[in-house]
Amino acid sequence: MRWIDPVSKRRLSKSESVATPEAAAAWIEAMEKAARGGVDPLAATSALSEYGDRVMELAVRGLEAKTLDPYLAGWRKRVVPTLGHLPVRLITNGAVDRAVHGWIADECSRSTIKNSLAILVRVMEQAVRDGIIDRNPARVTGWQREFQRAEDELDDPRSLALPSWQALVGLAEALVARSADQFAGWGDVVVFAACTAARIGEVSGVRVRDIDTDTWVWTVRRQTTPSPGGLADKGTKGKRARKVPLIGKVQDLVSARLTAVGSDPDARLFTGPRGGRITTAVLRDATHWDEVVTRLGYEHFRRHDLRHTGLTWMADAGVPVHVLRKIAGHGSLSTTQRYLHPDLRSITDAGDALSAHLGDERSPSGPHLRAV
């Protein structure tokens, strides 16, 4: 398709390959419709991030400064990395639903999700006005209920943890058995994530140079996340590196992976069967996760719950809360404290410890006046 830009008077062109003549005819018709409506054909076929840059001034008109700043932050930090690479006309309700679900899983606040969704709605509404799409796919509903459910779970993250090491091993083996070609690497990812209380994206980001086999400590420096054009590595959620111990039960697993990937310090420790990067969605689809956990009786168990499992086990093992916070990378101590669960035995032990500390200073029959 070729046309003359009415402003610059330059002759421009746009081409696209499609699978069928019908798809080609539909594309030409869409471009002609956009041109008749005065829409730049390049804008009509551009990715969301590019289109947003072109129309942002129109999309945010009428907003006050105090509202504009969080809207633009949501666009830059969440909308563009999640959906920015998709053509505007290919963004569906389902794509927006998955984006919002991902923000909830990343523990974004309710206001953060609301602001990110609001600016997406405004940009997509401009696309409706431009005739690029017929309806606004960003007007999704029900995410508040999903957010509330996730928030309720985070109030008691211990309830999301697997009950034992045997349960973890059983889950890993079942996922491997259900995957194509029974790829053992899926089981390694699951066990490693639980034993280090790490996010799946952080497991995907592990490089050889991040592992210190002298002290058996992993320095968490990066995570794999969706970005414009595909997956990319970026800093951890807390924007700072942290150190995590590698317990004996995963040291043999890590040693085997180090031997398999060789001496390249930048080699990934964990990859998919074809060497690709791993995300929570990749792990879910490759292992038929939902089917497997339902069959094992953990129907509500998600990939992120491997992290809850590790933190719960560490808390039960007596790891001090300030140390657990550093391992988890939590910004708030109150978040870490949710993993502590003082049972009746620990409460009575606390009483015994206080009694031993006071020793014989207390009087069995109450206080007495001392003669002077």
Automatic annotation (TrEMBL):
Keywords per UniProt: DNA recombination, DNA-binding
Coiled-coil annotated spans: none
Matching Gene3D superfamilies: 1.10.150.130, Intergrase catalytic core
Pfam families: Phage_integrase
InterPro entries hit by this protein: DNA_brk_join_enz (IPR011010), Integrase-like_cat_sf (IPR013762), Integrase_catalytic (IPR002104), Integrase_recombinase_N (IPR010998), Tyrosine_recombinase_XerCD (IPR050090)
Domain Tyr recombinase: 155-352
Highest taxon above the source species: Bacteria
PANTHER family: PHAGE INTEGRASE-RELATED, PROPHAGE INTEGRASE INTD-RELATED
Protein family per UniProt: Belongs to the 'phage' integrase family.
Name the UniProt record assigns to this protein: Tyrosine-type recombinase/integrase
Lineage, highest ranks first: Bacteria, Bacillati, Actinomycetota, Actinomycetes, Streptosporangiales
